[in-house]
Amino acid sequence: MELNKYIDHTLLKPEATRDDIIKLCEEAKQYKFKAVCINPSYVSLCKEHLLNSDVKIATVIGFPLGANTIETKVYETENALVNGAEEIDMVINIGKLKSKDFDYVYNEIREVVNKANERKAIVKVIIETCLLTDDEKIKACELAKKANAKFVKTSTGFSTGGATVEDVRLMKKVVGDDLEVKASGGIRDLETFRKMIEAGATRIGTSSGIKIINELK
Fold it and tell me: Which residues are known catalytic residues?
């Protein structure tokens, strides 16, 4: 696979403007990135500007804290899908996981996956590795796998740390070939990008995609 097809061209900053998002879409088309990843309010704008392109539209749910109710996350998902989202990057309820309320975390992932399935969208489960022990990372991956998500994802990029090679390797070991791994947060150069792929990531969330591809050239 060409390296540009690993990239979710990402802009999730709260101050991102309409013009910033349009520019993101144009860049994604130019560089043939796999997807753009944007906040839900910009999904319909991206749909308009990515029409007749191969670039997917990914958006975030329960972002960035993951502490919304299940019902809210399901509604957010439905609304995003109606507006044109094709990929759903949802943040789990981290506090519930750390409280060992595993049924809750499983149910919220399953509910979002079920809603996404109605429109053949895929779900990437953000587990926010920087806040978890290795045992908790393993459990979160097992729950995502059980709930039939498509990906587990390292990070929001808005907490205390981003993706690490060790976390990607651990997550891939847990999910095997059943799920894919998305590395996100702090991936800003070609060397780091390659290391994440070597560790098992098949998707990279980054705002530095153009810089990385230009380094390759």
Answer: 89, 153, 182
